[in-house]
Amino acid sequence: MLAAVYSVLLVFLSGVVYSRLTAESAAWEQPECIRRGTLFTARFILKMAADLVYLVTGGCGFLGEQIVELLTKEDHISEVRIFDTLESESVKAFATATKVTVIKGDITEYSQLLEAMKGVHVVVHTAALLDYLDLEPFWKMKSVNVGGTENVIEACCAQSVPYLLYTSSISALGPNAQLESMLRGTEDTKYNGEPVLPYGKTKAMAEKLVLKANGEQLANGNKLVTCVIRPSNIYGEKLKEIQNTYVATKARKGCLTSLEPEGVQNNFTYVGNVAWMHVLAARQLQLKPEVLGGQLYYSYDDTPVRQRCLLMRNLFLEVDPTVRLGSCVPYWKMCLFIHIHGLISFLVKPFRTIKPILTKQLLNVIVTSLSYETDKATRHFEYSPRYSWEETKSRVSQWLKSIKDN
Q1: Quick one: which of 209, 224, 240, 290 has the fewest CB in 10 Å?
Q2: What is the pLDDT of residue 6?
Q3: What's the pTM?
């Protein structure tokens, strides 16, 4: 008797699930069981909904590429759309062999976003104008990072895209104008003041927009669910900074220069682990919206070092055992160098443009501690690093060796 009742209930449940998944072809209706947080049923629905479409803005970028590659390995995703102003050769080749569609577009153009989001279920918004050296005017950075994010949110609402995951930056936190440190903080640690970097200011504005948009009504009557991941000092293969530092270190006969005074602590996270955190968060945002919705998460893994020079040395030692740490360049010397460089740039401006190597604001970021210790992502969506510290070093060293050989 119980078996018969169970069979009837199972058939009924299957019919309900099927009707919900096929009710709307243009925009996936957020199931009632997901909105109510019934985790088992939500997982069952996600397993059946093997035709989900993800859109990744900035999918050709350093982090975006890694996110896209991991998303293509998810069974429940039928298509990954890249929305970017650029189309790298590696992504173009990757797209021809996988379920990736590359759409060339600009997030500042609302109509382009609107078209790209047709039939999309999840948006991972990584696109941003990144500038630490004051090469871009603030209005342009704000137009992309803030205005573009506004467009993404509005397009999600108009096209009834129910889930939005935003990639922020530790720069959105600080350091502030007073260069106050934060040591071993968490997502709940209060840190007052406006970020000193213009880029950080725009990311802080965009963060607020995304978190505020959680719960906004979509065109189909459902609600938008949003969350934010705030990475800190992402590193990995293909990062130009690592390549340039390695070349400069080799030119100085293996001596690695440090700008960070002793005691400065900052978090560093491998790009593959940051990408994995995005994949897990995007998945669990659908299964546990009542937990992840409106939340902010720091990125983390088991990278043991807290100073950039020590990170670089550990990575370079895998390629060249003779690499050693030099003495730290005093803060006043770096300020003097920046001032002289700025003066020379001003004098030769009528004839040529010299890009700054370092700015006073960026130097202040380098010498200020902003570290945290948290397990929030683990508690909320079962995150654990995909790549260990040993694997990370191996992957980066193999990349450096390939550059060296070429």
Answers
A1: 240
A2: 33
A3: 0.87
